[in-house]
Design a protein that fits this description.
Peroxisomal Thiolase, Chain A, domain 1, about 250 residues, extended, 6 strands, six-stranded mixed beta sheet, alpha/beta
Length: about 250
Amino acid sequence: MNTFAIQGRCIATPPPADWRDQLAQRLGARPRRIGTWAELGLYGALRCMADAGETTLPQDAQIWLGSWRGTYAATAAVLEQLRDDLPMPLAFLQTQPSQLLALLAAQLEWKGHACFVAGGDPQGLLRLAAPEPRNGGLLLGWVDDVDGGSTNWLRLRPSAAAAGDLAPLASDKVFSQGHSLCRPGCGAERRPPGSRPRGADVGRPGEGAGGRPRIRDPRAPDHRNRRQVDPRRDAHPAQRVPAAKAPAGLSAG
């Protein structure tokens, strides 16, 4: 399993009260025409890159961004506008998570692979991003604009250190202080020995997993197929045959 060295981080849950002022100071001006979710993501990513001592992202690096709610507040505003008329164009654009990815590409002078994942958890996001890391590493983020907001980021580089006994971090510990290495988990859910998988049917043997039994052809009491007992069951449709010709008779001469 790949091991990553943490070169920089931004842990802001919630962000500081003056985070917008800090973002404007980094950019040289306040960003315009973007929503709160994109602003939070931009603030956290740039602060993480500054913590790593980088201003640009290598071209072979990848950006992976996750969120539990995504652009929840912007989407709610657009749905409210739809009650009366079509939403405003800028309001609709703020519902698109890709807006943040485009902003990051411009600010970090970068072109490469970027991905947004909704739902799941931070450990799952790391697991998706980890299989083929390049030398440029990853910029991994998790952003939400509800419940006070959060913007958490890691700048990761592939590490030559052996994983050894390094255990995968729990999802609530991926974006946390106190560790310099991290690696993704295997993704398999461990169950007690002898336990049934989630959703398994506890009905009769042979019906398999799932909530619905299989639909089978009913059988007679002696276990013979119904077609053997009742040959008229599912019989072939009637075939038309030509009408019988009348016998030749005598005709008046």
